[in-house]
Write a structure and sequence with these properties.
Blueprint (H helix, E strand, L loop, with lengths): L2 H10 L4 H12 L12 H20 L3 H16 L6 H14 L7 H27 L2
Helix pairs in contact: 1-3, 2-3, 2-5, 3-6, 4-6, 5-6
The structure holds protoporphyrin IX containing FE.
């Protein structure tokens, strides 16, 4: 199974998979709640679903517009004051959530998701670091 097929399963669910992700992320990491105070979590979940589509594309090929989007997303996270250390926790929790909505899950699929999200994070960090350098 390719990452694209796994992503399709995520997007085909009637209930937004990433909405489950946020409840899990927040309950397992109470220290992150402060960042989401007053936010519309439905909207947030829709944006993260779109970011998964972007990340899968970015995993397959390097397209300048996609890279630029992820860099800007990274800058936004810097502006929101989100520490870099939270990203691997976010990634692992996201993969754990995705694994629960799949017909067949495997170590290979987990590795592919990890590589895809890590690549997205690395590109986000380019924008994040640029914002840090700018002060
Ligand atoms: C793979 C890593 C991540 C991805 C793909 C991602 C994706 C997104 C997206 C698509 C948005 C919406 C941006 C917009 O308003 O247009 C967003 C915003 C946000 N994300 Fe993330 N995120 C990631 C990591 C994290 C982490 C680790 C945290 C930790 C708490 C976090 C917290 C937030 C918050 C608080 C916002 C709202 C920021 C604001 O509007 O001020 N994200 N994220």
């Amino acid at each position: 199974m390719q990452l694209e097929d796994s992503l399709r399963e995520v997007l085909a669910q009637k209930e937004l998979v990433v909405e489950k992700f946020y409840s899990r992320f927040l309950s397992e990491n109470p220290q992150v709640a402060v960042f989401f105070e007053g936010m519309d979590m439905k909207k947030q979940s829709l944006m993260l679903s779109a970011a998964l589509i972007v990340s899968e594309s970015h995993f397959r090929e390097n397209l300048p517009a996609v890279e630029f989007y992820l860099q800007v997303l990274g800058t936004q996270h810097h502006e929101a004051g989100i520490p870099k250390e939270l990203f691997p926790i976010f990634r692992d929790c996201l993969i754990a959530t995705i694994s629960q909505c799949q017909e067949s899950w495997s170590d290979e699929l987990a590795d592919m998701w990890r590589a895809a999200i890590d690549k997205a994070i690395a590109t986000m960090f380019e924008g994040y670091d640029e914002a840090s350098d700018a002060g």
